[in-house]
């Protein structure tokens, strides 16, 4: 499909995008976006070669302009990042957690004014999560031509197909959001959707978890407390070195090399030679730090991996949890909200088992969450025997017949 074959719509920019490679062009674009007050934002990046993913392209769109910004020719992306972070500018993303992370890291604060169309679509009879292509098809009536998810985004010049792919990631979002917003307002769900956009961003804020890394390396194997203490310290050191060198964890110290170091507990450079998975470069450049880390960990009090006490579901538990999950899912579907966005069976199971053991409060969702407003309060009443669910089938979907 050529650039000219997109159906005309006042909120969809036709034709090829602008390619922004000069400071003045970028400044003009930023002024336009700020005056408009709303824009779609996406990035293409490479994440396999560096500690932080390297942005190779930035895509933006308003109802009037469509542009691709080439980061390779600018010293920094602060003019665009300022817009993404600004509360007074509405930034439209789709599954935007990774696209927002560079902004959060650059300014050390949470971007504001973010609307995630993947989140919002889940409040309007769409599965969670739904791809951009599915959401565009549903709300814009257009089928995206995809196929460049894995490509050399750092290569220049970009091909016409790459440009088309990148542009379509933002081209339709202003129109899609206009239609989603109108539907959410008509259904009285806009506040819920905006609250989830905020909550989902907060859940994606990445914090290094050494315990999680240790569990991943051990893959269920058992390790003595002292060895676990050494491994935990090495995992932290690896993270620090990777960030400092801007390299992936696996390049600095592979999981296999960490296991070697824990097993051999080297004290000298000669001892490091016996760690066959340790690369020569790492050994030459960082032997002092590695040996000091191990020596310090050996002197620290032993700290084993925290035990996870997980109660197994009995046959009776399984039957009851399945029943509760089924009725909660039906309630969500009848309200046009994806059950997977609301919760999951595994989350429900953990809550139910803890509740039965007296370790959890009565409600599945906190009382200040939109989930409690939508279904949590009803679920509490349902489990107490004070509420029911009356649903039917109409026009190809479940509907609640008990709505007032």
Describe this protein's structure.
The protein has 404 residues and is α/β, with parallel strands linked by helices. It folds into 3 domains: 3-203, Nucleotidyltransferase, domain 5, CATH 3.30.420.10; 210-299, HRDC domain (DNA polymerase, domain 1, Orthogonal Bundle), CATH 1.10.150; 315-400, DNA polymerase, domain 1, CATH 1.10.150. The protein is 51% helix and 10% strand. It is built from 18 helices and 8 strands. The protein has helices at residues 23-36, 78-85, 97-107, 117-121, 132-140, 160-171, 173-187, 190-203, 210-218, 225-245, 249-252, 255-264, 269-272, 280-299, 315-334, 339-342, 345-356, 370-383, and strands at residues 18-20, 38-46, 54-61, 66-69, 90-93, 114-116, 391-394, 397-400. Strands 1-4-3-2-5-6 form a 6-stranded mixed beta sheet, with helices on both faces. The model has no long low-confidence stretch (mean pLDDT 93).
Outline the fold blueprint.
Layout: E1 18-20, H1 23-36, E2 38-46, E3 54-61, E4 66-69, H2 78-85, E5 90-93, H3 97-107, E6 114-116, H4 117-121, H5 132-140, H6 160-171, H7 173-187, H8 190-203, H9 210-218, H10 225-245, H11 249-252, H12 255-264, H13 269-272, H14 280-299, H15 315-334, H16 339-342, H17 345-356, H18 370-383, E7 391-394, E8 397-400
Parallel strand pairs: 1-4, 2-5, 5-6
Antiparallel strand pairs: 2-3, 3-4, 7-8
Helix pairs in contact: 2-3, 5-7, 9-10, 10-12, 10-14, 15-17
């Amino acid at each position: 499909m050529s650039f000219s074959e997109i159906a005309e719509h006042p909120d969809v920019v036709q034709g090829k995008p602008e390619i922004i490679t000069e400071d003045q062009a970028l400044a003009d674009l930023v002024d336009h976006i700020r005056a408009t007050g709303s824009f779609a934002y996406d990035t293409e990046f490479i994440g396999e070669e560096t500690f932080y993913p390297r942005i190779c392209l930035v895509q933006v769109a308003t109802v009037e302009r469509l542009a691709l910004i080439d980061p390779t020719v600018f010293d920094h992306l602060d003019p665009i990042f300022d817009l993404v972070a600004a509360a007074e500018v509405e930034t439209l993303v789709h599954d935007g957690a990774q696209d927002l992370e560079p902004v959060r890291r650059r300014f050390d604060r949470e971007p504001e004014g973010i609307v995630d169309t993947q989140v919002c679509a889940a409040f309007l009879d769409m599965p969670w999560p739904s791809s951009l292509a599915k959401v565009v098809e549903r709300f814009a009536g257009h089928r995206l031509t995809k196929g460049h998810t894995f490509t050399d985004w750092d290569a220049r010049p970009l091909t016409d197909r790459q440009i088309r792919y990148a542009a379509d990631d933002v081209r339709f979002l202003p129109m899609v959001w206009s239609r989603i917003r109108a539907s959410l307002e008509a259904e009285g769900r806009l506040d819920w959707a905006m609250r989830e956009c905020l909550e989902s961003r907060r859940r994606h804020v990445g914090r290094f978890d050494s315990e999680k890394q240790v569990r991943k390396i051990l893959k269920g194997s058992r390790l003595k407390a002292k060895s676990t203490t050494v491994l935990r310290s090495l995992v932290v050191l690896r993270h620090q070195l990777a960030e400092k060198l801007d390299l992936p964890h696996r390049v600095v110290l592979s999981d296999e090399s960490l296991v070697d170091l824990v097993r051999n507990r080297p004290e000298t450079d000669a001892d490091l030679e016996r760690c066959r998975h340790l690369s020569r470069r790492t050994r030459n450049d960082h032997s002092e730090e590695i040996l000091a880390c191990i020596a310090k960990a050996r002197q620290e009090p032993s700290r084993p991996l925290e035990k996870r006490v997980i109660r197994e579901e009995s046959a009776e538990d399984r039957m009851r949890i399945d029943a509760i999950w089924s009725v909660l899912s039906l309630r969500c579907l009848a309200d046009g909200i994806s059950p997977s966005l609301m919760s999951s069976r595994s989350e429900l199971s953990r809550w139910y088992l803890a509740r039965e053991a007296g370790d959890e409060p009565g409600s599945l969702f906190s009382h200040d969450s939109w989930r409690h407003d939508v279904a949590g309060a009803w679920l509490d009443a349902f489990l107490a025997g004070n509420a029911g669910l009356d649903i039917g089938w109409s026009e190809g979907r479940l509907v609640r017949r008990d709505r007032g």
